[in-house]
């Protein structure tokens, strides 16, 4: 039962999402917002797997999302809209990019790793802006959403809601399974004490690279959904600021567990939604909140109850 | 004598102009505790670092189970069965004691590119980990996070990690470092239980412990081996006495066994 | 592609490299001494440009604007250090990345709030509006040459400071082994404040110089920040010399790549394809160069840190 208690926050969020259409979130704007939150949560969970699990702080994760989204764009332009083709291509493209850039980036660590992932992410961004055949800087509007076995199921808002929920749940389960496996145990060991792990016979490189590729593929799947949710893809979606926002979601929720990324993504989207309606320059407030969160919420939202309990107990 | 588990042949290492390992040759026989002692700065840790693969020697060869491992990387040596404990406690703090040992067992057995089964539920690994924890007297503390353990317990866990890899050779770098008198006694007890079951290369400052535990002792001074022999022979060696002149820590009387 | 155009592009690349160096110098020292990753360094550059625009509008003179913007940039840097950065030295890189990212959000939208989203123009100093002829009918602007000259002079000054003065010696020692310097009884926090303030001023200086030739707008520092990261990674973290050489390399590769790549590809592809593929390749060139260098030298060209 301990596992169940530990996973309660994540199960609660997923359960609430399943019920959301009947809890007053059935309108189109609400479903759009929830879809955005779920897709970002997918990317955030995969990033949390990297950061919290493998100790790899990537500042280029939005590029993986971008590879997935641009795969949809490029295939759409070639009039290929079948999900059984588009989705595998999106995942493979993102994972492939992760493999090529990871092969260089994983050789380094710490600050170097952060900067190199940032640089490679920006490389993807500039490449996207130079794709004038696909709208360049201005972005590309899809002709239609992807079809599944010829049916337009992704175009139906309610179906799309549950497809996103299913994908998010699957992402969470996969990352959870990986972290608990032998593979994940080695990753966590390398993060906790790399020299010890090596002295035990584990070379960190292949484990970390594989984790990077898996997280990239998962983010690519999120990018596939993202393109379908907005029916529009622009380089701005994969700029490095988006990578920073993904990291913010992860740390806002807390890197102690994957459910932190779920909480963080929803907290982020909610905050963005509320603030941006209040004030044109809402990012100022957003920045202040980010700094305050980093300085005063080291355990993130998920660690808040424990933090409060400690304070009450201590004072 | 049976073929040695570990054989060093003419090992040399310099840092800048300073010779820290100078023509060192020694053997560790199966089931033997071979201790390396020497005054501070004699190059003991540098020697261990070369054997485990943290540092590359400038010249000489390292043979492990008859195989030349001089050029192998750290993790490859570990895979062959060379387990090391660190002078500074090196555990994974956010793992429990059991998971630390289970990770070590995982290293000694099969591939770790397994993705589906929860590693924490693998009975084989947990059993091997528990055996290792029992050998060092930590079975009761199996579910304690390693970071929350006392210093002495961490030293014990360090040993358990080494044992759980099913090693052919244990490299123990000052296993008693920083331990209080009671902890030291307990650790010596644990080490003497391991004798005959493992080949052990022991680097240790505590002379009481070394003379109580070792089958053979090699004395390292300024990177050079000046003597190798049984504790009784080393105790009588004039050169060794000269090297330790003014230091009282070489027990002149036979150590109580 | 004529030789003249190559010369012009080469000079432009040199100029970009100089600006990059001014930004990267502070960044690499802050990294080197405190192991502190500061994403907000790019907005210091943007602030320099905005301060120049503001003071130029107030005083009507570029030179007054320069003289006032530099201490103002220093002041803003020190205020940020006290309010935010000093609380992050003991935190991990993840916390540093996020908090300094927050600073970017605040300042990028802050200047938009104060000055509007439209780009501002800063007039060139009147005495530098002309150009020197490098070929018939082609003038290279004096002002761009002045940027190159001013930047090189600053680089020289920096070299002197770091290599020849006591504080420079401490900074170098700090970059090699920070705990050692602290153990010597030097107040490493004060040292860092000096390094930080100085780095902020250098980035601000780059912003002031760039203001008349680029449009001054929110977010203008973000792209340069990432190029500055590439520079630091290539040059080796903590190495001013490495940053200088890498900045010139990146500036040249970036500028020449963009102008030469489409022409080179036209040998293989038709014109429109060459333009598109060339643009894509040119934008990747710097990063490919970085990857290639790191593949052989993971710590950069001039690694500093001991061990």
TrEMBL record, chain A:
Membrane topology: Multi-pass membrane protein
Places the protein is found: Cell membrane
Transmembrane segments: 50-73, 85-106, 112-137, 158-179, 209-234, 246-270, 282-304
Signal peptide extent: none
Main location, first listed in the record: membrane
Coiled coil: none
Key word Transmembrane helix present: yes
Highest taxon of source: Bacteria
The entry's keywords: Cell membrane, Membrane, Transmembrane, Transmembrane helix
Keyword Cell division among record annotations: no
InterPro entries with a match to the protein in the record: ABC_transp_permease (IPR001851), LivM-like (IPR043428)
Entry protein name: Branched-chain amino acid ABC transporter permease
Gene source species: Falsiroseomonas selenitidurans
Upper taxonomic lineage: Bacteria, Pseudomonadati, Pseudomonadota, Alphaproteobacteria, Acetobacterales
Automatic annotation (TrEMBL), chain B:
Keywords assigned: ATP-binding, Nucleotide-binding, Transport
GO molecular function ontology, one term from the record: ATP binding
Chain ranges of the ABC transporter domain: 6-247
SMART domains found in the cross-reference section: AAA (SM00382)
Keyword presence, ATP-binding: yes
PROSITE patterns reported for this sequence: ABC_TRANSPORTER_2 (PS50893)
Pfam families recorded: ABC_tran, BCA_ABC_TP_C
PANTHER family: ABC TRANSPORTER ATP-BINDING PROTEIN (PTHR45772:SF2), CONSERVED COMPONENT OF ABC TRANSPORTER FOR NATURAL AMINO ACIDS-RELATED (PTHR45772)
Name of the protein: ABC transporter ATP-binding protein
UniProtKB/TrEMBL annotation, chain C:
Database matches in InterPro entries: ABC_transp_permease (IPR001851), BCAA_transport_permease (IPR052157)
Membrane topology reported for the UniProt record: Multi-pass membrane protein
Record keyword Ubl conjugation present: no
CDD domains (alphabetical): TM_PBP1_LivH_like
Annotated TM spans: 12-32, 39-57, 63-85, 97-115, 143-162, 191-214, 226-256, 277-296
Keywords of the record: Amino-acid transport, Cell membrane, Membrane, Transmembrane, Transmembrane helix, Transport
Subcellular location as annotated: Cell membrane
Record-stated family: Belongs to the binding-protein-dependent transport system permease family. LivHM subfamily.
Protein's name according to its UniProt entry: Branched-chain amino acid ABC transporter permease
